[in-house]
């Protein structure tokens, strides 16, 4: 699981499985095997924290910085794609905006 990759994640009973974008950097062997992600949604609301994403492999949607989360790597079940640098940069900016950084 690398920064900039899109993975399918099992978020548990409360939320449905969905694609997520990995934001976190690689962890070392002695560190926790977790990743921070931004979920991809098809329920777009047009907020300033969403970054539109179009790709033939996915339904039209967006990455929603308001849904940022962290999960153990065991919850990531399948690599789906690599995100282009321009869209990844826009997601980083949306996360900064959401967190006030």
In short:
By secondary structure, the chain is of the alpha+beta class. The chain is built from one helix and seven strands.
List the helices and strands and how they pair.
Blueprint: E1 5-9, E2 18-22, E3 34-41, E4 50-53, E5 61-64, E6 69-72, E7 76-82, H1 85-99
Antiparallel strand pairs: 1-2, 1-7, 2-3, 3-5, 3-6, 4-5
Task: Sum up the overall morphology in one term.
Answer: globular
Quantity of strands, as a count: 7
Mean of all residue-level pLDDT scores: 93
Radius of gyration: 13 Å
Largest sheet data:
7 strands, antiparallel
Our count of helices gives 1
Share of helical residues: 10-25%
Distance between the termini: 25 Å
Poorly predicted runs are none
List the domain count as a whole number.
1
Q: Helix-strand pattern, N to C?
A: EEEEEEEH
CATH topology: SH3 type barrels
What is the beta-strand fraction? Answer: 35-45%
The computed structural class is alpha+beta
Q: Could you say what the CATH architecture is?
A: Roll
Provide the CATH top-level class. Answer: Mainly Beta
What does this structure look like?
- The chain is an alpha+beta fold.
- The protein has a single domain, classed as SH3 type barrels (Roll), CATH 2.30.30.110.
- The protein has 1 helix and 7 strands, in the order βββββββα.
- It has one helix at residues 85-99, and strands at 5-9, 18-22, 34-41, 50-53, 61-64, 69-72, 76-82.
- Strands 1, 2, 3, 4, 5, 6 and 7 form a 7-stranded antiparallel sheet that branches.
- β4 and β5 form a beta hairpin.
- The longest helix has 15 residues, at 85-99.
- The radius of gyration is 13 Å and the shape is globular.
- The mean pLDDT is 93.
């Amino acid at each position: 699981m690398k920064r900039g990759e899109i993975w399918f994640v099992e978020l548990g009973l409360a939320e449905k499985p969905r694609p997520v974008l990995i934001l976190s950097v690689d962890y070392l062997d002695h560190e926790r095997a977790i990743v921070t992600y931004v979920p991809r949604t098809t329920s777009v609301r047009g907020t300033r924290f969403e970054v539109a994403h179009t790709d033939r492999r996915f339904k039209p949607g967006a990455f929603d910085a308001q849904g940022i989360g962290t999960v153990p790597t065991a919850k990531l079940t399948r690599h789906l794609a690599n995100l282009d640098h321009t869209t990844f940069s826009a997601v980083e900016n949306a996360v900064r905006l959401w967190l006030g950084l």
